């Protein structure tokens, strides 16, 4: 096995598949990256929860396959000069990596026995623009629960129905939902572990090019940019999120997103990093007063809003509001309050490309 | 066809014995309890071969009438039932007249006994349950039982016995419990001719602790005294420096019965938490007296368990008792501890010689080991490795240094007990005499009695004054502060001190702030046990005040709709149950329910580090703040904040005095 490729591309491939390699395994082969050359070169990492296959353009002189220890292979290629890399497997799996004036010869392992990515029988398939999926993940991933006791909530639900592609994450205190339209008429339901979704998010590019998602019983395959990612699914019933989102509101406001963020950030200067004090919103007469008070002092700021409905005073954990507000690119948003102890819903002015919901803090003194 | 037969008496005794006489320690327990029932004030247990070869129990109790001796070995023969007038107040805990019969059926027993009135004593020999001989002998008042060759006729049981040293260890433990339970009775254990336990029987618990655990432990305990709510608690709790890595030095007695109980240990440990390093357990001898009505009698009296009808009350009482004991006592490790600490890890024994060049782990790391204490450590380390479960610093009880090498080698040969050496070298009599000098008097000089006194009028206030009025010498290594006060040098760990200050401040802030509650997206349902459900109902007002919104959902299910804001990251079912238990304490402020780690972390993060220069103004401020803390002695991880070195100790180091 022998090929030449660019250091830059090879390293990109390595660092991508490394996300799917166990850092510490009992079997050395599981700490390895699988490398195969025929027309192209492809690298595979697989830790069973997640498997990634990445192709690299290369001049292949002779075909073959080998497994190299992920850490050492990665470290070596990272430190190589920006130039062509010569890769050759000699006898006894001894592998030569040459670049510029540097020469490495490392011991490899037989590729036999490496857990290759499973084939996914095309059960259900859906395609969506990469940049669109990337944006939806960004909008929802922060609301994933970290509570390992409720495993299902450590992932995001992908729901495809009636030409809509929806991602939902929620934890005990908030919910984040993002939606896009698609052409295919399929139905599709899967909960992807948050950790894997995060890797997928990183690998996707800001392009119109589509990512193809294929679903099987307990795995989902994402294909794009010459890369295949297989993620296991979280099993169990995801919460019936629709049930939580209220439809009736007491108060609704339209507010400038940036101004709202700034005022909450300023209010939380007072509460600092010490998580004992919420921020308070007092809404009346087309204005919203954002205040906070802590031992060190108080803060107060007035914002102009457009308001419908009743006056309201409501408290929030500033972090939860900010998490949601910060992923919004819209200049103006619609914020709706069901009651001073009920959920607050943040949406675009038009439509429902995203729905964020945050539960309030009761301010009984 | 199989014929139905009635088992002969000796067989049924063997079966029964299998259930109760498991090992030599069971015999010792039964015999000693019989002696106590007979009103003995002195009990001596002598064993060989771990008690398998022989056990001799001698008491000075009432003795048995000549005519009754043979009968005592009959099953269900007891002289005690007629004394039991009130079943609730059952005071004997034995076998209901089965112990002697069971013991006699699996060993060779000889008894010599004489009552006050009898002119001569009686000697009876029993083998495998049969009386072999009865004859008059000359004997003092009291009873001696000799049990030989345990399980000689039941090889299967014999096989289950452990190594002699292990069996001897069990006997040791049993007698320690009895001795602690009954300071009014002198208990002596002699193993292979060596005295390993000898308590004075002078009604003083501290003397018992002294004779069992040694001088250093006895000097490092704080008395516990609590009474209220139908519960009385007395005993002693160890200062942080004698804590251990396991619970083996915790002895809890409920109505004078040794027991294990989760609620009590939890309360004890909770109370000591911020004073102890993580994974360290306090030394404790606690005696809890509670009206028998509140104790579940359905638990077998021979078992080491107990159940209370009101666990919350017990928890609160113990917690309160220990807390107030700790907060009222000075916890500055004395100079002795600074230079001569025991608690050397087992692994360190092997190269005890090199030890003087190494620093001693953990609490002791501040102290530079010296020639003198390095040799001390050698034997002290061994005493621990010998697995007695005692951490006593034997060295300080020894006046003749040269006695050591001998005792050390002996201990090395795997002997179970090393205590005997103390008595040998320090001369048994001398120590016993000093113990026998009744309970220590208040205000007694530290060095005159064997045992430190604890009832100075408010030692904490004294320490606070001492700190405030001390002369600031300065800072060393940019990490420690040195103060001079009277004849004492105080060293303060600046990080530990500031951490303690920040910890108490943070905790206070948490308990004083406004209460906000975070509404949950998806209400959490929690299933509770009966007990927990009762606790929930009792605590529901308090829970609400803390920011919970919880409803009874019927059955044993509750539903949580909102949680205190400070619990930020949410709670699980188990977290809520833990909170219920925590709230059993009287305080019930928010700071009780947020995980200690959160407070620790905030405190630790905001505390100044070591290797940071402090101007004198800052030093003074720090000391002033430290004196305002509830516990100026140990940091939140249990390490000492202040250590003291006396002038005398320094003079000794410089060989100005001997
Ligand atoms: N050390 C002793 N001193 C006096 N009497 C004893 C002693 N040991 C046993 N006895 C007598 O033998 C009886 C039987 O003892 P045991 O089998 O242990 O049953 P129990 O203790 O339940 O009565 C006791 O009731 C008591 O009268
Ligand atoms: Mg008895």
Which features would summarize this protein structure in a list?
heterodimer; A: 365 residues; alpha+beta; DNA Polymerase III, Chain A, domain 2; 3 domains; 8-stranded antiparallel β-sheet; elongated; B: 658 residues; Heat Shock Protein 90; Ribosomal Protein S5, domain 2; 8-stranded mixed β-sheet; 5-stranded mixed β-sheet; 37% helix; disordered N terminus; binds adenosine-5'-diphosphate; binds magnesium ion
Kindly name the structural category of chain A.
Answer: alpha+beta
For the record, the CATH class of the largest domain in chain A is Alpha Beta
Gyration radius over CA of chain B:
28 Å
Quaternary state of this entry equals heterodimer
Please name the two chains that share the biggest interface, counting residues whose Cβ lies under 8 Å from a Cβ on the partner chain. A-B, 30 and 24 residues
Give a structural overview:
The complex is a heterodimer of chains A (365) and B (658). Chain A has six helices and 27 strands. In chain A, the strands form four sheets. Chain A has a nine-stranded antiparallel sheet. In chain A, strands 6-2-3-4-17-16-15-10 form an eight-stranded antiparallel sheet. The longest helix of chain A is centred in the last third of the chain and has 15 residues. Chain B folds into four domains: 185 residues, Heat Shock Protein 90; 123 residues, Ribosomal Protein S5, domain 2 (2-Layer Sandwich); 121 residues, no CATH class; 201 residues, MutL, C-terminal domain, dimerisation subdomain (formyl-coa transferase, domain 3), CATH 3.30.1540. Chain B is 37% helix and 20% strand. In chain B, strand 4 and strand 5 form a beta hairpin. In chain B, helix 2 packs parallel to helix 6 and helix 18 packs across helix 23. The longest helix of chain B has 19 residues. The N terminus of chain B is likely disordered. The complex binds adenosine-5'-diphosphate (ADP) and magnesium ion. Adenosine-5'-diphosphate (ADP) binds next to helix 2 and helix 4 of chain B. Magnesium ion binds next to helix 2 of chain B.
